[in-house]
Design brief:
mainly alpha; 48% helix; 80 residues
Length: 80
């Protein structure tokens, strides 16, 4: 059986665009050598997109996009 190509959603960054964004994140906000392990940036960006497209509050964002407290912290601190 052939696998169907995944249909792009309104909530997720396409793979080609993510490759470009990831390079910018690594360049302008590299991971710290110490401290807590960094969350998956793509997952967090998808969560921010979900929040802006739906207009929901931060707490009801589905867990697939990361912890809501981390989402709020990232959005409040990082102004890209």
């Amino acid at each position: 059986m052939l696998r169907k190509k995944r249909i792009p959603t309104l909530w997720e960054v396409p793979d080609q665009l993510w490759e470009r964004i990831e390079k910018l994140i690594d360049k302008f906000d590299p991971p710290a050598p110490t401290g807590r392990k960094r969350e998956d940036a793509r997952k967090l960006l998808d969560g921010v997109i979900f929040r802006f497209r739906t207009g929901c509050q931060w707490n009801p964002i589905p867990r697939v996009y990361g912890d809501d407290s981390y989402q709020v912290a990232i959005h409040g601190v990082k102004k890209i």
